[in-house]
């Protein structure tokens, strides 16, 4: 069985799960790893790469789009105010004031608002403001910080993105592994009742495979619209239950009704 067949069977053919379970354990591990990496790419890498390409890369951003900037004598100064939107996240630099005021936040979204002395992290939703405690710039920036020093941060920014990507993939595994465990509690009852003699590990993998279509549906939808609608989540759950139940019935030799 090829890896592509393994994916197609997991998504659409519960009758083939009995064959999938006969594969070596490393094939099951590889399936899980690849699926989690795909989710990370769809949910983080693609939209992030699109945003970075939109402003021409960090080197262009720090060198050309952000005008001359310097932190000295306890104050940040910039030649021209700067604001840029990254998929609802607004980075705003205006050193004409020590702290960016609420009336300077023009629209709903998340703001990293930098004045000459403070950084504010604010979420604007209609009228309410949700804000973390302001951070004094003297706690963040060294004396003499400027555009050239921003360029030196680029490798660290990309390293952070790689680490975040890996953490995100691990988070997906924990999330869907936990859901597979919940499904397994019921599916293992069917296993015992039908005397299938499947190990709990095999039942768990049936439940993990059974989620594949729902996982892909939910996360690709989130990548397109920015969130997972409730009805999509419900459809994913119902499909997962159907795939798991059908797989167990086929293993027993009962054709799906």
Helix fraction bin? 55-70%
DSSP summary: helix tally: 9
Shape: elongated
Which stretches are poorly predicted, pLDDT < 50 over at least 5 residues? none
Major sheet? 6 strands, mixed
Tell me the strand percentage band. 5-15%
Mean pLDDT: 89
Explain the overall architecture.
The two termini are 27 Å apart. By secondary structure, the chain is α+β, with helices and mostly antiparallel strands. It is built from 9 helices and 8 strands. Strand 3 and strand 4 (89-93) form a beta hairpin. The protein has helices at 3-12, 17-20, 25-54, 58-65, 147-152, 154-193, 200-210, 212-225, 230-252; strands at residues 69-72, 75-78, 82-86, 89-93, 109-114, 118-124, 129-131, 135-136. The longest helix has 40 residues, at 154-193. Strands 3, 4, 5, 6, 7 and 8 form a 6-stranded mixed β-sheet that branches. It has a two-stranded antiparallel sheet with strand order 1-2. Helix 6 packs across helix 7 (200-210). The chain is 57% helix and 14% strand.
Supply database-style keywords.
single chain, 257 residues, alpha+beta, 9 helices, 8 strands, 57% helix
Spell out the blueprint of helices and strands.
Elements: H1 3-12, H2 17-20, H3 25-54, H4 58-65, E1 69-72, E2 75-78, E3 82-86, E4 89-93, E5 109-114, E6 118-124, E7 129-131, E8 135-136, H5 147-152, H6 154-193, H7 200-210, H8 212-225, H9 230-252
């Amino acid at each position: 069985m090829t890896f592509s067949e393994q994916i197609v069977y997991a998504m659409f053919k519960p009758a083939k799960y009995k064959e999938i379970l006969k594969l070596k354990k490393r094939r099951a591990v590889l399936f899980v790893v690849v699926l989690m990496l795909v989710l990370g790419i769809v949910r983080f890498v693609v939209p992030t790469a699109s945003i970075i390409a939109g402003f021409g890369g960090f080197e262009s951003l720090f060198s050309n789009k952000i005008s001359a900037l310097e932190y000295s004598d306890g104050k940040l100064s910039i030649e021209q105010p700067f604001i840029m939107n990254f998929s609802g996240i607004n980075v705003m630099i205006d050193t004409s004031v020590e702290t960016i005021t609420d009336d300077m936040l023009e629209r709903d979204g998340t703001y990293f608002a930098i004045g000459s002395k403070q950084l504010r992290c604010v979420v604007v939703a209609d009228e309410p403001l949700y804000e973390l405690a302001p951070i004094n710039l003297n706690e963040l920036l060294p004396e003499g910080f400027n555009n050239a020093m921003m360029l030196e941060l680029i490798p660290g920014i990309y390293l952070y993105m790689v680490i975040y990507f890996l953490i995100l993939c691990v988070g997906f595994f924990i999330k869907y592994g936990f859901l597979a465990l919940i499904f397994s509690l019921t599916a293992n009852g069917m296993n015992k009742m039908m005397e299938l003699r499947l190990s709990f590990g095999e039942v768990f993998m049936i439940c993990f495979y059974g989620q594949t279509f729902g996982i892909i549906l939910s996360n690709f939808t989130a990548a397109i619209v920015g969130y997972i609608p409730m009805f999509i989540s419900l459809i994913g759950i119902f499909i997962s239950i159907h795939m798991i139940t059908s797989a167990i019935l086929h293993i027993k030799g009962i054709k799906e009704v």
